Amino acid sequence: MEEDASLFPKKLLDDAPLVEDETAEPEDPEFVLGPVPGEAENEADPGSSCPGKEQNADKRKQRPAVQDRMQASLLRRDLSHLDQLHEEKDLFIQNTREELRACRWRMGLLAKQQESVAAGPAVERAAGNRSAVWHMEIQERQLEDARESAQAEAPAARKCLRERGASGKAERNRLLRVRRSVYLQKEHGLRHQKLVEDAQKNHRKAVKFLKASLGRIRKQEQREELESREHARRRMDAVLALKNSISANRETLRKFQAWGQAKAELAEQRAQAKKEVILAQGGDAFKHFCHQRRRQELEAQNRAFEEEQKLRKHEIVSRILKEEARRKQRPSPARPAGRPILRDQTWSYVAAFHDGKGPADPPCCPPEGRSALPQASLLVKAASSESVQADRGSLGREAGTLAQPEIPGLWKEDCKPYQVPKEDVDQKSVGGTKTDKDILARTAQQLCRGVTHKQVASRREFRGCPFHSKPKLVHFKDFDIGKVYKKKITLINATYTINYCKLVGVEERLGDFIHIDFDPPGPMPAGMSCEVLVTFKPTVNKDLEGNVSFLAQTGRFSVPLKCSAKKCSLSLDKELIDFGSCVVGETASRTVTLTNLGGLGTGFRFLLASECCEMDTSPSVFSTSSNFTYEDKGFDSNVATSFSKQLTAGNESVPADVPSQKESGKLDIKEKEEGRPVESEGVTSTTIVTVPPNEEQTEFSLGEITEGEIGPFSTIKVPVIFTPIVPGTVSTRFKVVFKNQQCPTLYFKVVGVAIDVPVWVPKPNVDLKICMYDRLYQDSILVHTRSKTALRLHFEVCKGLQGHLELLPKTACIQALSSYSVRLKFLPRRSLPEDAGKYFDKESRVLEAPMTIRVADQIKPVGFTVHAIVTTSDLELSPSGVDFGYCTIYEAIRTQVSLCNHSLLPQEFGFVRLPKFVDIQPNDGFGTILPLETLQLDVIFQPTKAKEYNFELVCKSEINRCFKLTCRAVGVHPLLELSHYQVKFAATSLYNTSVATLYVINSRLSMNPPTPSVPRIGLEDTPPVGPTSFEFLLPPDSPITISPAVGTVWPGKRCLVRVAFRPVLTRELIHQEALQALTKEAEAKSDTATQRKDQQRQSSILRMQNRDRLSQASASQPLELQKEDLTSSAHSTVYLELWCPAVAPSIVVTSDKGKTIADFGDIAVGQRGIKKVSIQNISPERLDLEYSVLNPNGPFVLLNPIGKLVSGETQVLELSFSPRESVLAREMLEVITKRGTLSLALVGTGVASMTTCSIEGGVLNMGYVIAGESTSAGFKLQNDSPLPIKFSMQLDSLSTGSGDEHRLPQFLASPAQRTEVVGTQNYSGQSVFSVVPVEGVMEPGRAQDFTVTFSPDHESLYFSDRLQVVLFEKKISHQILLKGSARKHMMFVEGGDPLDVPVESLTVIPALDPERTEEAEELKPILVTLAYVQLDTDTPAPPATRELQVGCIRTTQPSPKKTVEFSLDSIASLQHKGFTIEPSKGSVERGQTKTISISWTPPIDFDPDHPLMVSALLQLRGDVKETYKVLFVARVVTGP
What we know:
Radius of gyration: 67 Å
Number of helices: 21
Largest sheet: 6 strands, mixed
């Protein structure tokens, strides 16, 4: 244990904190809870705290209490488990802490041992004991290893301790959460228990109050029920009383109707007698009656006018009385003495008018005396015996108008007439002189130009109405006088820019009725609107029309306005009412309907046509009643009527048996003679009726409603009652008159026949409808008797129909006042037309058979008629026989058969027991055929074997009649067969292609016995086995292509056939469409369009061969085919049915004249060509577009796929062609829609761009140049491709490099790693190299010259750059390395090994002294390395050679020397070492170079292990003197 403790250092133990110091508090402060109350710890039952609760409440709470106890037990179990886990974790943490303390102690012990061990080696080493030192080092290493292992274990222990501490915290937190949840749950249970108790207490209170409320509601309902019963009883009594009153009034009305009819007949007789007298005297009766009628109308108008004057006079009197009473209530202002007031003047005027004096003195001119006032008071007292009440509001307004004059100055006594001033007398005429008129016209024109001006926007002048009105017409329909109508108009600015609107006004004739409320909105932008309120207050009852004028910035405009008064539109639903036969004593009723379709109601009255009744209206009475006419309709008409009755009560005498005016509305003869009118319901209408007495009473009468008011848009039904009195035919004509004179009188006639027999038949006409021959029809006939004794009846059938008609029984006895039913049987035979004779019409097939009922002891028999239409039940098949001819087993032949129904009734039919090889359509041969209809049926024959067919088709009708059709045919088994005999192409748009494939099969392999399955025609001989040739024959100009059209099929083989359908527009159809567009004739256009649609949409069925154009598939021998033409048999023809629907394309190409081929032409490889194709949706709906998948590795790409195309919209598709090789590319792009597919053919040719450069090796060396000067060199590029090539020249020094930022500098890299081509550059920043031209286009087959210029600005040997030839801005065709060197002087030495880097340093080199400069010039080093290769010791090897180039730069600068001289010293020593130098001295002309050859052969005494190093001086003399130190290094190598 101590050894383990010594392995841990003390420092590591000190760094690790003790776990005991960490706090064990929970992480969340909300978990710190107080003590749980004792009542929460116990298992409390929510129902135990309320022992007084009801038993139902305890049962409801028992289940939640059990659940709470179970949950609490579970929570306690979890708590105990958590406490146990917590204790285990605490124990583990304590053990871990003890281990950590022991570990720290061991680490300290190990640290002390290590220190002692570390001091021991030094002592032993000083003592010279190496073995002890070695053992101590080993021990030190062991201690170090132990310390490291302890250090490695300490973090793991700390980590484990932390994890355990964290898990302990988590467990404690979880424990606290559980305790808190238990606490909260118990607290929630207590709270819930309290809430339940409160809710139960409140529920008991609510139940108590609810019972009290329900009691009160029940009492109230009982009280209301009693009241409703009492109310219903009172209503029932009132209804009974009303019913009794109606019955009494009805009887009275009937009596007066009879009296009125008698008077009408008497008046008609008098008028007829008077007419005869006038005609006898030679006069014009019509003219006389017209004059008489007009005179009566005039008298009626006069009486109405007088009556209206009386009414108005009394109204004015009543108003004055009210005004006088009102004035007495309030104090009147003082008035001057002797001046009569307005009331006195009015009373005087009224009194004078009442005494018969004319209205000579109006109220505005006051009379001299006031003597008329007492007279007026008497008049008022006499006239006001019955008060006439009016509307208070209107009386108040009228009284105020009468009490105070409109212009006070005219009513004063000191009013003086107006005198014209003298200065106004000498004024000029209104028109002025001609000069004034011209000035006025010019001024008006200028003002007009200033108000309105033209509006121009986007170079377009606005023309038209500046504002649109909604509604366009302001129409006031069916207006009433005195009411106010309002409508809003919305004005919308329809101009291009801002506009203004100003109200001008309405027309003059509408100014008194129309008022416009318009607030000018100011400047209104285009499309904005404003509102105008139109108020219409009618005062006259007539139609008005006009315009509301406005002024806009661009001119005047107006809105039409129309006002329509109410009108009547009356009509009767029938003009003739036929009651038929009616027995005397019975009553029949019919109804006539009077309809008003107008907006104005009127009074109506139903009268006999012979009655004279004039209903006149006086609409102009009020308008012509001088100053006292009052047109306000607010007065009640009943008041006016009662007032009129009072005035005429003393002068009119009405008989005692005549009812009131409202009930009868008619006048007595005496009243007519005296000219005293009787008022009707309205105030403004007067009815004059002249009815002469009549002793007879008519048999036709009207119902209860014979007169009254019909409202607008309403109907009134009037019953017409027929009560026959005397047998015979009775007819009466009625008329309907109206109060409104504009409504014409309506007439209708009533006809009836009265019969009087004891026995009668209610249905004298027995209609059996339509009957067929040989079919039984029955009906029952009801016979009635009014006799009070039993009668014996005998039923007889007319002669000739006994075999067809029968009445059962033939004899019967009918009881008194009862009815009897007789059975009628009708069985028409084929002999009915001959047997019936005159009773049967052969053309119309109508039978009218009179039947007779003989009554015992009665001479007149009772007859009735039996009506029937007799028709046949025959069905006819046309033709009666069908010959299908020859038909192969692979096809079907269709023939039409006509089925005609000769009957007048529809019949059901069906073809039964059909053979399997026959089919009848439509509906499989079943259906219903209408009367006299002819149906076309398709009989389809498809044989199954090669034989002759003879069979019959049976058609049965619904009455089980059979009709047969004979058929015959020959079945053929052809030599060849097709894999498909019917091809249905999909709907193909124009210029698109649909393809289908099929096989022509020769399935015969060997000769078979003659069975039906062997290829043959009917029962003929079987042809021999062999190759069979076929040929497809197509109709001319058909859009079908078959490939191959001709071929031969060997036995047991098959041939693939491709059928293509490509609909096109024929030239004739195109010309027809063009002509149609030019003529612009509507009928021709519609006909042509219909024909074109039919041609495009119909499903055309093409066959390989039809009856006139046969596509033959024939069989022949090979030998015969070589010698003679292809022969075939028409009977062995095989038919191919093609369904080819051609439709208009939904999408068309509108670009490039509608071509569907996108030809990109020649495109260079690596380049991209763009082509745009415009497509348009010509269908009536929006289409979703999809595209076929192009080759992902191909050169074609769709750049902008369009997803949707609206109807009529045009979009542009962008297609790109990017060839990767020199090849012709083709591909199809399909634009797919739900209505069809548009195929676009994409074609393009990729052409390789080939160019040739005149520089070989890719390096252009510009040589040496004097710094500051320049030199040029040229090269050529040849275009060897057939396309023009766009080129551009790029220098690497002028291009932006990428990826060079993280490379090593060039002077730090090895020569093998130096890949940069851009060398030294100019200090000035300008490019060292330049090329002309920089870019351009090389035509096919031509060459382009380029010039490269080298312009250095300082001395350097490492000028370089790279020139790239870029084609089409993408492809690099050639790369040329440009090199050059610059010197300050005219001489240079080239060659030797490089001693410096090719990159100049950016460090500024300080200037040196001249002496040091010369010394530095003499020491310019040149390293020449020579390697002597010795391959074999026996064979001498060639010497090692090197070269140095000495040159003279051509310059334009003036120089005293034209050449450069060079010399190399120490030649002898060099030769002694084995070096040979030629030449050692010489001169070089400008622009020339001279080569110094250096060779080395190792001498005899040369040591191969030590290289030979020799130096020599090379001096150059030109414009300056330069000295180079040439260092020769020679060595011997054994291999290359």
